[in-house]
Automatic annotation (TrEMBL):
Its EC number is 2.7.7.1, 2.7.7.18. This is Nicotinamide-nucleotide adenylyltransferase. It comes from Glossina fuscipes. The gene is LOC119641799. It catalyses: nicotinate beta-D-ribonucleotide + ATP + H(+) = deamido-NAD(+) + diphosphate; beta-nicotinamide D-ribonucleotide + ATP + H(+) = diphosphate + NAD(+). Residues 19-226 form the Cytidyltransferase-like domain. Pathway: Cofactor biosynthesis; NAD(+) biosynthesis; deamido-NAD(+) from nicotinate D-ribonucleotide: step 1/1; Cofactor biosynthesis; NAD(+) biosynthesis; NAD(+) from nicotinamide D-ribonucleotide: step 1/1. The keyword Repressor does not apply. Keywords: ATP-binding, NAD, Nucleotide-binding, Nucleotidyltransferase, Pyridine nucleotide biosynthesis, Transferase.
Amino acid sequence: MSAFIEETTNRLLPRIVLIACGSFSPPTPMHLRMFEIAKDHFEVNGTHKVVGGIVSPTHDGYGKKGLAAAKHRCAMIKLALQSSSWIRLSDWETQQDGWSRTKSVLQYHQNFMNNYINSPDVTATMSGYDCLPGWLPANLRVRKDPVQLKLLCGADMLESFGVPGLWSDADIEDIVAHHGLVVVTRSGANPEKFIFDSDVLTKYQRNITLVINWVPNDVSSTVIRRLLARGQSVKYLINDMVIEYIRQNGLFQCKTQL
């Protein structure tokens, strides 16, 4: 009976999908661990039901230093996600004519899910597609209530909103007002102060969920690339299959034999 009550309660919770945007060059365990941390937070607090996770790597046109070609980043993400039952890769961003603003990425995925849920004729709604995209979370149509897409990020992305010229105020407002942020931060950080100092973020702070990561992991893509270029081991820092893919394709000036 308790299991039935729990399931019934879960069905009544607002549904959300988490999306992480970035370079993922290469993907690290923390990139994916953030999804699990956020999902646990919502389940423990009983406020929302997380029904899917999406990893959206940026277009090659982003031009960031150390950015591997999109085909390689997508391949590495697929390998890293093989053990996940609910986080999926979306290559939509990489297939566009050029770099897409985060606002546009969120709008595309949100609109696609809305159309999929609300259309009585799936084939008509999906005209132009040979099949449903692989990033689409499973079982979205078992309920007709809306699913909200939220941007999952670390505190560094939140703070990047304050870098002059990096984000437009209109984009920040659209992302926070219409989608919302889930910010995974570390113990001792003070994202509340950053939100307080921003008029836009304060205005929509009800749409910002702060989640403390009590098990910090500082292994970044930058550190992985540096170790690989120096011929040092990255074993146990990233997925073994990703390491092998990097070695086979000679990515990141790899000199290590692992």
